[in-house]
Batch of 2 targets.
Target 1
Amino acid sequence: MSSRRNFLKQMSRAALAVGAAPSVLSWATSAKSGSIDIPGEDGMIVRSFRFVDLETPVEYLNTWLTPIPHFFVRNHMHEPSELNAASWRLMVGGEVETPLTLTLTELSKLETHSVVNTLECAGNGRSLHRPQVPGIQWSKGAVGTARFSGPRLRDVLQRTGVKATGKHVMFRGLDEVPGKVPPFIRSIPIQKALDSDTLIATHMNGAPLTKHHGFPARTLVPGWIGAASCKWLTEIKVLESEFVGNFMNPAYRFPNQAVKPGDAVKPEDTHVVTGLNVKSVISGPLDGASLKAGRVAVHGAAWAGEADIVKVEVSIDGGASWTPAVLGHEQAHYAWRLWSYERKAEGGDYVILSRATDSEGRTQPATAVWNPSGYLYNAVDQVKIHVP
Amino acid sequence: MSHSAKSNRLTRSLAAIAVIALASMSVSAFSQQAAKPAEDLPPGAMQAKATTACLECHEARIILQQRLTNAAWTKEVDKMVKWGAVVDGNDRDALIDYLSTNFSPDKGPYEAPRTSIEKGSGK
């Protein structure tokens, strides 16, 4: 980890960068065919330009740590129009003994902790559900892994003290709400807030957060859906009960019982989505690829939220037979495992599948559980290749 | 949202359109194929009203990528009206029809653009 002085230097540089970053007004079209210039974002799929929602092409999901220019971006609202490291404040209040306001400098003086975490949008894979459901039509790449660093949320809450009545912790960010849209505010239970790996992250992969990822500070709720981790954090409030608002109910909820695809579900028959599912994705070969006969290398990533990946299996015959893939050496509790598999392929058409199993005994299903908002898609992944 | 905030937002949106239009013109000499930062909604009787009602808060791609039934579009339109989309009561059904016709489940996939490949990104 960098020293405190470096941290502050980096932060002020990042503040300059954010201040100087071209706003939506100066984004220009690229001379490249069919592409849009968004500074700092490299070859990403533009699901939305205003507000910014960017998906990682599946072929980029091939490194243990995802470089920031390839890390998916999910915004529910407009990004804050002004962010200033010097005037930024973090307010901590609610069911606490002593409310507290922290500057970025004060936050940076707290002990830093790092967590390598696979962050996935709850709606990743939404476009693959049938019947189709409304929302950003993510394919497979609203997921990435980064080393998040910053003080533990627990350390901040220990400074304020939490009253016995404090059971949930709410986060509010500085994103700007259009129209009468409900603000993007959610809460997590106190147990998860006090977990030693839940952070107020100021850095990703050793660099200060970029604006798209929540500069100057965001929460990192490891193993949980991305929506649990609030960007541009400015307020932490300890509550007696779960926060009441659109993004806790009806949004980000999952049916308690399996429902017939296409059926409506009553809010009282649903629960809040928290931890991620067991899931794998094939990052190569790409779907539709034509490959030379001989050794064919299949590779990808597999993750399981708060659980660990214990096995990834690959089938090249459409699921008739499965062989274990080799898991990569790099691992951390909340991070995905890279995996690879090689075998000889003669001429023909192949349906390649990948299937992950985790330490809780969960295995990817052949068909994901349909739900009205298209959350937690995790069907066995599939690509078709041709060997001439 | 207050009136002045709204008119500020509108002024900013118009400025954005002007800048984007200029930017598009300046690159058109180099390439006809650069993706437009702002897409248009498809032609139709409700195009103008849908543009005003929907695109104040978000861009057209959010709509262009959906493939929904009439029932699902009805829910979306009613939710958005609750969230501040200005739709005259007389236009609600026509707007739902317009969206359901253009963005129904049987339509082909929407092809999203990419951001440019950064020089020296190592890719």
Note: Residues 1-6, 17-32 of chain B have pLDDT under 50 and may be disordered.
Target 2
Amino acid sequence: MDLSITIGKKTLKTPVCVASGTFGYGSEYESLADFSSIGAIFTKAVTLEPRAGNDIPRMVETPAGLLNSIGLANVGVKKFVSEKISFLRNFDCAIIPNVAGSTEEEYLQVVDHLESCDDIFGYEINISCPNVKKGALAFGTNPAMVESLTSQLRAHTQKPLIIKLTPNVTDITAIAKAAENGGADAVSCINTLIGMVIDIHLKKPVLPMGTGGLSGPAIRPVGVAMTFKVSRAVSIPVIGIGGIMDAGDALQYLLAGAAAIQTGTVNFIDPAVTGKILRGIQQYCKREKITCLKELRTLMRYSA
Amino acid sequence: MNQQFSIIKSIKKIAKDFYSMTFSWVSKEIPVPGQFITIRISEKNIPLLRRPFALSDYNPKKREASMIFQIRGVGTEMLAQKKAGEPLDILGPAGTAFKCDTSGHTIIVAGGIGLGPMLFTASYLQKQKKPATFIFGCKTSEHVPATRNFFSLNPVICTDDGSLGFRGTTIDFLNKQKTEKNCELFACGPQAMLKGCHEYALKHAIQCYVSLEQIMACGVGACMGCVVKTVHAPGYARVCTEGAVFNSRDIAWI
């Protein structure tokens, strides 16, 4: 069956991708992951200058979840191009850097740097990281800023532009529509939810920044609901993210209307999970007698 | 680093709250002292993340590895309930090692559950007939493991309450000894003990290597979550990749 999906003018070989921040630069998973099943590797966020990241501790486990405050720790775009891309070339997976910045100008400069790399499939624009003081989330919660940033980026690249949405808004569809109006080729739905864990003995949050981003199975119903809404609000592909642990979870997103999915926190727990998810999707499609992934969402017996 | 679908060979309680687990070793990569594994304890999402454990032994003939763990929360409680014959999902071996190629004397300091990697290190040096002093500190005699393996290393036992061996901490003990010039210090245990080891090493101008602990998500260097503060740029290093064994002079001690 045809497992490929189209984003902009380009094609991913499978709908199963790995989420930014959960797969490093790929090389960390060399001996562990099932690269043949991965449609695209969304890399650790890349900023113009290297970032050391946030104070420690950076993580705390919650019921079926992980609250993190990494703070976009990364090597910077120059080192990313000179040192990190070469490993990713070894595999038949699309390379999609996750681009972050504090200002519109920084996003544009990062993309300009990356444009010199033919191996890059497209960009995921991170306007939804809850763990940095400036930028990122501020962009992602304001439709006018999302449209402006997207349209400016559109003028700098022909490659697929994917806007990563935050769930930390009243109406995620307004942000998704703004991305579409700005010329985005797809949206990733969703980034982490803002959360806090308090140490009752120390009487302060466990994470030094106070809050962090919640991921893992705890947030899956939120991701599925937002994917359902967003995929009905825009006509560009939606990439479903949030708490996917297995093929059943991935299928919830695909039925909800996602064109593809990203595995996140599960990569830490089951690094070869993408192969199992892809096989599970294939088996389901075979049972349901569909030959093209796009037909999957038509199976839904519910419309809101 | 491999994902290994291993089988538990035995789980034994060796002291109050301390358990020793032995399991088959599938990977071709041979683990060395200081290295760790991560275990997926449950497939039911609670606990969600893998848990890291330093290895306490490797038996090349039987192709079995061991670790020591303490019940600290839900994960380790579930681990202690497991039985011989059950499968075990492991990633490893991971991280850096204690370099056991030294020509001089090695002082090995273990505190509490920090015993695991130091047991591996001490027995490794013993097999190579290298001179070492093995110091183990814990709260009371209840925490001293009643195993032949432990006592065959001629440990100096320090208890906080003096119920067995030296009364006081491992650092108190260290400070009462004559120091040798050509020696190195290897340590794993509570933060205060490790800092004490570091200060001892500075005072006596010897090298000190410490195995550190931090909450870990991926255990392979991808998530940037398990960092500790260092004195070198960019100011942080990953426990899972640049560690868990660090030169104590690289660490920004608080």
Note: The domain at 5-53+73-195+215-299 of chain A is CATH 3.20.20.70 (TIM Barrel).
